[in-house]
Structures are given as structure tokens and as C-alpha cells.
């Protein structure tokens, strides 16, 4: 059987170059890699991949844990994957996304690392109490959170400042004179399971309202256009009928705007609607375009991947990797001044023109 | 140093059970796995994972190649991931999603398999000429396509019958009296790169129109709400102004409907709009709800994962794994009869009431 030495000799390269070409541990010139590949085929060389792995002790792969394949996802998560993948590639690491659930997913990822398929883990969609975090800590697997647990300081993390993003939306509406500002959040199931963004965004809203001495009114909504659409009527039939709504639920907000239109209400003449922490292009889906804010997903993914590699290299400690990122406003035309009088919900579109 | 035998003895299980718990090759009762894990910690057992891998010669992992993290994705792709993950888990396989590009991605995946990180590959977002397919064939890596190349018969595949889905939409509109039926497809870049769905859907439209002796009119559109919105005006300013539009572009269709609304046109009174091969819930995002059709993504993912494991087990040949799935209609209220006269694009909403 051909050995790695045979391949190196025939391809006229160092043995280490063959090893790098196989492992991806370091970049190898395209033409050289191609020559090595051809020689391996000619000699029918079967790389002793596992033994190799043992020798270098690195899979040069970052595993991203991604429970969100369970539900529909916003574009931000793709930006995170894209940013992490690009940063990993720059450091000669692969990125693989593991669609494991929160329950049992940590154990599965620890196994994956123990099997040499990955070196460390990036955790996305983090819950305040996340069983994956405990499992990875127990297994001594290095990890970086894209999100935060209830007790984040000892972990490496990068997260969106949800509190601030929602508070900004509340203040923008208040500046226009709105006082009855409702909040439409994530699904009740996410609140109950302690999903960080669901809790932090709601907390940010309540805090902002209280600081303005306004009465908070929050409602959960399933992450689907249908649920958003069905919410339009009950939202407006409340005693304290809102003149503005802050929505932290990309899937629902589209349906909500469609539902308001169906009720004959005009945005923003009859009611202002503002999204938060959305994808950059979401706003263009509605008429008028939705005012929202955008999280720098690619930047977050890149930060997380680089931090993980530095943890693997023992260059830093988890407590040194903390970053909270701000959202940037995406202007639309869905917010305006308070309507002079509240229109009755039975009035048809155009009655104010 | 502790051996696997030491772990088995202390945990009071067979050595093979320890091996299964480590490899995930066969299911192990939760309590037993937990006991084994504890004993491994107590003994500070370092599994010779790579050597183990060599012995069993299976990573028990399916790699899914997923170039689409480049662009926004529809819900169908998540359904495919979900279906594949569930089917893989039933067969005691992990599923990892590799966000590699079409160019060079095949080589990267072949390397991953050679390194023992995966056993075979599921290819999503397949181009008619897909360099990943050539690379995997050359490397003799088993794979299943979710999609088809130009020459699909010798490969294992499951794909949506795009031609039929679009033809169904054209015929539904024709039955309502429409003759000027335009087609809004995928981005020009996808057409140029030979992305299967982009080409097949357009071909299905052209064929259906020709079979009805109608003149086809196709337009490409970037996969974004903004692009869809900007398309509304030029689409209606054509000489042969359409009375109906078939859209195979989930990201654009929302923007297109918003753009028509902005122009003062009512759907379906002034123009019918129908989507195709969409997610189940997309329709609720517009007012009126969009008529569309839904592809059975989970079923496709499950079929692909099961087929790949059977290929790995040498139970079947690639040419035995061919499946074309049909979409099911998702009724909405966005299609109606041909308007009696074509409204001028300057007319405002409500002028027909």
C-alpha cells in the first residue's frame, strides 16, 4: 500500500505539504493541491485520516449548533453563518452547522468534538438557561455564544443589545407623540423556554415605557405571518387601544401589516408600526415600507469564529471575549404622528383622506 | 491511562456499549449513556476516537452541502434540512450542514469525508452543471442530490417538479380567462450559473404558454423584496401589459405585491398574482393572501437521507434512487378573472369600486 511518503515523492513536495493538503490545516497552492490529489489517485493512496487526526490533534473545524432549523428563521441568522464561515476560512478552519436541539444537543456536540470531527462549538439561538452550555462545560469543550445565558460573564459571547434596540423604537415613537405603544414579541413558547432575545427585548420595552411613565402592554405572537395577521383585530380591540406597535418578530410583522390593511386601517395614518432587529431588506415587503433596525449579523459571526479559534489556541480566556453589538436604524415610512382621533375599527381605508 | 475496557467494567456494561455510546453508531439507553459518561470523567478516560473511527470505518455523519447561505433562503430549504436530520437520526446518523460554495465546495466535502468527518454528502441547491458533483464523483464519495444536474439519470436524486408546478399556475390563470400571463423568475445570476430551479421553472412556463398558443414574457428578478418592489412599474409598462403574473421568487413576490399596492393597483381586481413552490405560510404575508403552491420539503430531505444511508450500505445503486415530487396548491385570494378593461397605471386604488 502507498504511504504518504510515496505521495510526497511522486508529487515532488514535502511530506508536510501532503499532510496539509489532506487536513486543510494550512493553505496549499491550488495547483500543488491538484497535483497531490492526482498522485493520490494514481497510487490509490488511502490516507490514514484518523491516525493523522490523532497526530495533529485538530479537526480544524468549528461546529455551529443551530437548533433554529426547527422554526422559520430571519436573515440575521444567515448573516451570522456567513460571517462565521468567512472568518473561519481566513483562519484555515472549516465551519459545519449542526442542526441539534437544545435538549441533548450539547451532549451530541461534545461527542462530535470527542470524535475529532470538530474542535469547538459556536452556539446560536441561546436560551437564558441553555442545557447545551452546561453539557459543553461539563465536557470541557471550548465554545462561544452568539447570545447570552442568564449568567454570561464567565462565557465567551457576542450578542445583540436587544434592550437598546427596542428602547430606541419606543423613544422614536414617543418623540412623535405616541403614548399608547404596544409591544408584539416572540412566541409564548420562546418566552417560556427562556430564549434570550424574547426575554431581553420584552424587558427593554417594559423598562423604556416605565422610564417614560407609560403603561406597558405586551403580547406574544407565534413566528408566522398567519399569527401576525390574526393578531391585528384583537390588538386594536383592547381597551387601551394602541396608536403604535413595536414588533420584534419578523415572521409575524408582515402578517400584522396585511391584517391591518384588511381591517381598512392605514399605516402610519391610523397606526404606526415599527420592527426591530430585522433583516436589512424586510422593510420593502410592506406598503408603506416598514421602519425597522438591522443587526450586524456577519460581524457577529466573524467575531464569534475568531474568538473560538483564539480560545482553541489558548490565547485568551472566555471571560475576555464579551461583545454587545448595536442595531442600525433602517428608515421606512411606517411611523408617523399620533392620529388626531382614534378611528373606529369598522372604518374603511381612505376615510381620513 | 484508562482503557475502554476499564470504563466498561466500572460502568458494568459491555465494551461494545461503551463504543456505541462514543460513536453514536447505535442507540444506547439514556441512563446507560449517562453512567458511561460519568465513569469516563471519573477515570479521565481519553477516547482514542480516531483509532475507533478507523476500526468502525464510519463517521455515522451525513454532510449536507449548502451554498445557499450566500443568499436569503425560503422555508423549503429548512424543511429539507429538518426532514433529512430527522430521517438521519432514525438511522443513528448525525447530520451536519456545510456552508461551502459550488466552486471548490466539492473538493472541500471530499476532504471532509476523507478525513473521516462524514461518510457521504447530500447536495442542496444543485446547478445544472455543478462542479461539486464532478468533484465528488472523482473522489468516489457517495452522494444524493436534492435537485438535478443536466444529466441526472446516473445520480441519486430527489427534486421538485418545477415544470409542472409552474405549468399548473399558468393553467389555473388561463382557466380564469387570462391570456397575458407574465413570469417573474429567479435572479439573472442564477439563470446564468445554471441553477436548476431557475431554468426548469422558466422552461415549464414557456412550454405551458406555448401549448396554450400564448406568447411567453419572462423577466428575472433579484431575490429581494426591494427588487420585487422596483419591478412593479416596469412590469406594467410593457406593451403587452400582463393581466396576471406567475412568480417563482419568494423574496421578490412580497415586494412586488407591495409595489403594485403603491401604484394604486388592486390584487386581484386589476392584476392576478400567483406564487409557486413557496413555503406554506408565505401567503398570509400579503393582503389579499397570496395563492401559491407548497413543496414537500421534509419529505424530500427524509428521502435523500435514507437514500444516502442505503448507498453507504451498498443496498442500492445511485440509478435506483430517482424521485420527482409534486407541489400542493395553497389557496389564497390573489387570483381572479381578467379585468374588463386594463386600468391605466396612473389610476388610484378604488377607482373600480
Keywords:
homodimer; alpha/beta; 434 Repressor (Amino-terminal Domain); Rossmann fold; 3 domains; 6-stranded parallel β-sheet; 4-stranded parallel β-sheet; 12 strands; elongated; LacI family DNA-binding transcriptional regulator (chains A, B); Lambda_DNA-bd_dom_sf (chains A, B)
Order of helices and strands of chain A: HHHHEHEHEHEEHEHHEHEHEEHEE
CATH superfamily of the largest domain in chain A: Response regulator
Count of helical segments of chain A? 13
Our count of domains of chain A comes out at 3
**What is the class of the largest domain in chain A in the CATH system?**
Alpha Beta
Helix content of chain A: 40-55%
Region (Disordered) (chains A, B): 332-353
Domain HTH lacI-type (chains A, B): 2-56
Keywords (chains A, B): DNA-binding, Transcription, Transcription regulation
Protein name (chains A, B): LacI family DNA-binding transcriptional regulator
